[in-house]
Write a structure and sequence with these properties.
alpha+beta; 174 residues; Aminopeptidase; 31% strand; eight-stranded mixed β-sheet; single chain
């Protein structure tokens, strides 16, 4: 079984589905909030032109996901990236959520859904976070990711490396 980088996953708070070009307007309504990007390396991603480039890159990545509420509204996005079968590893990243979903259980459920899916195919899920992005670092610690060092992200920026490992006793099904 090959790794499906754009699964449809559902929880009782959030779900994910493949990101589509038709999602631009709805997703931009979330992304246009400058506070979402305040601690991010690309602080002006709330600007239309900057977000348009990000969105286009997301679509071409092959692993971009729309994050949806239980009502089916788009509340953010995330992505699987860098699947490495040999190293049994995949990255989860590029995640952002509407501020109305911060501080609750939405991010935790999102990461749990994505990690559970990934652990069907890999032993390790990694997350790369900008050194100044304290909010995302705390959020990852809250969901059980462990800081294990640093490495450059896909754009070559220094990043803090977090990981989650497949729970002992679970087996790879593909």
């Amino acid at each position: 079984m090959s790794f499906d980088l754009q699964p449809v996953l559902r929880g009782d708070i959030v779900g994910v589905r493949p990101l589509r070009s038709a999602d631009f307007d709805e997703l931009y309504q979330v992304a246009r909030d400058p506070l979402i990007w305040a601690q991010h390396p690309v602080k002006d991603r709330y600007r239309y032109e900057v977000f348009m480039r990000f969105f286009a890159e997301s679509l071409t990545s092959g692993g971009a996901l729309a994050v949806t509420s239980t009502a089916g509204n788009i509340i953010g996005s995330s992505r699987f990236h860098g699947y490495d079968q040999r190293r049994s590893e995949v990255e989860i990243g590029w995640t952002f959520l509407a501020r109305s979903y911060w501080g609750g259980q939405a991010n935790g459920q999102l990461k749990a859904l994505m990690a559970r899916h990934a652990f069907r195919f890999v032993k390790r899920v990694v997350f790369l976070v900008g050194p100044d992005n304290r909010r995302s670092q705390r959020a990852l610690e809250k969901v059980g990711a462990v800081r294990v060092g640093s490495r450059p992200d896909a754009a070559g920026h220094d990043s803090i490396l977090f990981e989650m490992r497949r729970p002992a006793g679970s087996t790879k099904s593909g």
